[in-house]
């Protein structure tokens, strides 16, 4: 089974007690989160060997995150700590449909201080599935680290997966550096985006032309989610849709992370790395089935509050019908 290695931010989601405009006092409950950390936990909960690389503060929230990841089976030996910055927080509000908005307390934050010298020795000595997100691109030093890590992973024969996971309010003046994000996308073989993220990144290019550019750059598979609507799967020579199960959403915080975690778990189970990925994708039935599993993972996650706590196990997926 191919191991999954997720790199980037681990942070604490302070989840509001309110849904929509409900009255009464508002309280916030801490949940372990951070997109790449969520993916590491998602894979571990599905029985896949999973490791997280990143940095947290030498504070109680950093200890909380590390303990939570470990409790779900994630290898946290690659988590570095620092006294130079605190662990990041995100205050999460939800509307009546469970859709969320974020107020981030970052920067400064510990995860932005991770550098290549913090990588554990031999971490890429054998091919893995390496997962990255764009939130580790928001400042130049951490962006340089992220892009270099993607290059190192490629050279090791690892399959590089990127989820754009755009959060404009994490970027200086709320302006996403599209060139920087695109540079990371084009280092990947598997790219996951939402419809809104495609709109934000494509500029003046038509959607199909922009996706074709990513595929021409070396991306083998582009998967585009659209909330409760069908997922669109793009290859150089094919395009198809997969409808997710219908569920009542409570909190969409971890929906996308559960989706990509489920897809990576299917790849890991099939023992896929960079050398095998294109052939694996060529099997239309196999690819369709894997995206269906990913959809079930995402659907399960949005029916529960929080991130790690909402990610499904194998038993959870068996109980969730298409």
Which features characterize this protein?
single chain; 322 residues; alpha/beta; UDP-N-acetylmuramoyl-L-alanine:D-glutamate ligase; nine-stranded mixed β-sheet; four-stranded mixed β-sheet; 10 helices; 13 strands; 35% helix
Secondary structure class reads: alpha/beta
Count of helical stretches? 10
Widest sheet: strand ordering: 5-4-1-8-9-10-11-12-13
- Please state the overall shape, judged from the principal axes of the Cα atoms: globular
**What's the CATH architecture name?**
3-Layer(aba) Sandwich
Terminus-to-terminus distance: 26 Å
Question: Mind telling me the C-alpha Rg?
Answer: 18 Å
* Mean pLDDT level: 94
Order of helices and strands: EEEHEHEEEEHEHEHHEEEHHHH
The CATH topology label is: UDP-N-acetylmuramoyl-L-alanine:D-glutamate ligase
Give the uncertain stretches in residue-range form: none
Q: Mind telling me the CATH superfamily name? A: Ribokinase
Largest sheet: 9 strands, mixed
Describe this structure in words.
- This protein is α/β, with parallel strands linked by helices and 322 residues long.
- It has a single domain (4-10, 34-88, 109-313), classed as Ribokinase (UDP-N-acetylmuramoyl-L-alanine:D-glutamate ligase, 3-Layer(aba) Sandwich).
- 35% of the residues lie in helices and 25% in strands.
- The chain is built from ten helices and 13 strands.
- The protein has helices spanning 35-45, 60-71, 140-155, 178-185, 195-201, 207-216, 255-269, 274-282, 284-301, 314-319; strands at 4-7, 11-19, 28-33, 50-57, 75-82, 89-94, 100-105, 129-133, 159-163, 190-194, 221-226, 229-235, 238-242.
- The strands form two sheets. A nine-stranded mixed β-sheet has the order 5-4-1-8-9-10-11-12-13, with helices on both faces. It has a four-stranded mixed β-sheet with strand order 3-2-6-7.
- A hairpin with an 8-residue loop joins strand 2 (11-19) and strand 3 (28-33).
- Helix 1 packs across helix 7 and helix 7 (255-269) runs antiparallel to helix 9.
- The longest helix has 18 residues, at 284-301.
- It is globular, with a radius of gyration of 18 Å.
- The model has no long low-confidence stretch (mean pLDDT 94).
């Amino acid at each position: 089974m191919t191991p999954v290695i997720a790199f980037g931010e681990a942070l604490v989601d302070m989840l509001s007690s309110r849904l929509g405009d409900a009255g009464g006092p508002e309280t916030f409950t801490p949940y372990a989160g951070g997109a790449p950390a969520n993916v590491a936990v998602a894979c571990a909960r599905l029985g896949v060997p999973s490791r997280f690389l990143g940095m947290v503060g030498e504070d109680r929230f950093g200890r909380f995150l590390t303990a939570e990841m470990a409790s779900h089976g994630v290898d946290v030996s690659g988590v570095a700590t620092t006294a130079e910055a605190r662990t990041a927080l995100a205050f999460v509000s939800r509307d009546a449909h469970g859709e969320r908005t974020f107020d981030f307390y970052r920067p400064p934050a510990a995860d932005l201080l991770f550098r290549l010298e913090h990588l554990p020795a031999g971490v890429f000595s054998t091919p893995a599935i390496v997962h990255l997100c764009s939130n580790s691109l928001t400042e130049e030093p951490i962006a340089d680290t992220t892009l270099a890590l993607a290059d190192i992973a490629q050279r090791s024969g690892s399959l590089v997966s990127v989820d754009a996971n755009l959060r404009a309010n994490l970027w200086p003046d709320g302006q996403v550096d599209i060139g920087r994000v695109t540079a990371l996308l084009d280092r990947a073989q598997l790219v996951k985006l939402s419809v809104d993220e495609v709109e934000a990144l494509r500029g003046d290019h038509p959607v199909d032309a922009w996706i074709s550019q990513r595929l021409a750059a070396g991306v083998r598979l582009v998967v585009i989610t659209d909330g409760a609507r069908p997922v669109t799967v793009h290859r150089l020579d094919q395009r198809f849709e997969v409808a997710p199960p219908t569920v009542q959403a409570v909190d969409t915080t971890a929906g996308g992370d559960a989706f990509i975690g489920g897809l990576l778990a299917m790849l890991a189970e099939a023992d896929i790395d960079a050398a095998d990925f294109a052939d694996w994708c060529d099997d239309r039935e196999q690819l369709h089935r894997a995206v269906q599993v990913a959809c079930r993972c995402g659907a399960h996650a949005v029916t529960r509050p929080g991130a790690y706590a909402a990610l499904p196990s194998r038993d959870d997926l068996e109980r969730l019908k298409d």
